[in-house]
Each structure stands twice: as structure tokens, then as C-alpha cells.
């Protein structure tokens, strides 16, 4: 079932969240960190915040910022990957991005990697960091664990998504749009793309960035490099503190679990209401047809 089908359009209407006003850019976009997820993205976010790049937007913001602009990300994803009128190409303007991330001067993780080419074109004066993992095998094992086995393969997470609006959009934006398209997966399984082709998709993504960005505007960097090359590239003083190490395996799992736990009471209540109504309707039908 295509993502432009009446079914998904109806679901987006049914689960619609209040739309916050579009943001307006007041400070220029300065840094785009376009490396793939599980490539030190949260450590890099914390480092940039320490260096004064406030706000630095991360994939967690898509899920947890208040108010949520998550529906805007779905619209941009649909424009990029599910637009029959695109003529085979997609342009997303700075104004379209700014409506969601206009308060940010740097961006990393999902937004930057999924829309890397579009952001590089939209913000031609921003410096670009290609954050990578030193060991490609470890990167692949990490994304398989955290994106596939802990989330995509969990039917309970999928089930919960139907009983709370925020959960539905969390699943919709990442599991149906961003990760599926970034990793060229089938509609039914992230494993089909990430499991089978993840490493060459990583290599191809890096090659695309190198081809799009002039060398003087690009830094290839990994967490092990620490402050020195990052600060030299950005023209900043090296802070007198250790480089931040964030979002390791346990921290990532806890953040997902905490997010689900906060909404579990609403999920259970809505499940009981739904199943109670279904039982009531079936009982009424049974009485009528006996």
C-alpha cells in the first residue's frame, strides 16, 4: 500500500496533532552534520552545544520537542520520496526547512542524514560535517540492534502506536518514512534494506556527500577524533573538558523505553475503550441477527 494511499491519508487526518506555528529563522544555519544514525550524532550534538551552537537539532527532537513539528517532517518526506509531480527530482527550500528548524543553527542525526542533499543545497553557507564510525562492521551491528531489533521488529511497539497519537506519529515518521527510505527498505521490513545492503548504503551516502560539498567546506570526522579537528574546522577554541560521549547502547534503549513508558497509561486506557466498544458492537449485532 503506497504512502499516498487514501488509507494513510485518512490515518494522518484521524491521528492529527495540533499544528504549531511555523518557525522563522532569526540566526543563519551554520553547521550540517550529515552522517548516518549511530555515527556519534548525539555526542556531536552535545559538542556543538558546548561550542555555542544553540540550538543544535537532533533526531530526538523530532520525537520529543514541545510543541511537536513531527507532521512537518512527514510532509517533507512525502515531498522527497512520494511525490508523483516531482519530475524525478526534489527541491526543498530553506523556508520549508526553517518552518521546522528555524530556531536551530546546527542540525545532526535523522533530519540531516535523510535530507542531506536538500539541506546542503538549501544552506550553501553552512559548514558540513560528515560524521562516520571508524569501524563499519560495528556501525552496521549498532543500527541493526537499535533500529531493527529494538524497534522495527517489536510488534508491541507497533501495536502501541495505534492507541496514542504521539506514538502513531513516532512510528509513522521513522518506520514508514525516514528509515525506510534512507535505507531503501520494503514497506514491511527495515531488515530488507538495512540488513541486506546497509554497509554499501553507508559507503554510498559518504560518497554522495563528498561529491556535493567542496573540500574546504567539509570535515570528515569521527568521535575518536575529539575536539581538535572539530574546533579547528569551526574556528572555535578547544574547551577545557572531555569530549562528550552520549547515546551508547544502554542510553539509547533507555530513552526509547522511557518515551514509551510515559504514554503507556493512555495506551492501556485507549486499548480498553476500543476493545470494550468492539465487544459491545459485536454483542449488539449478535442480538440483532439471532
UniProtKB/TrEMBL annotation:
SUPFAM superfamilies with a match to the protein in the record: P-loop containing nucleoside triphosphate hydrolases
Protein name, as recorded: P-loop containing nucleoside triphosphate hydrolase protein
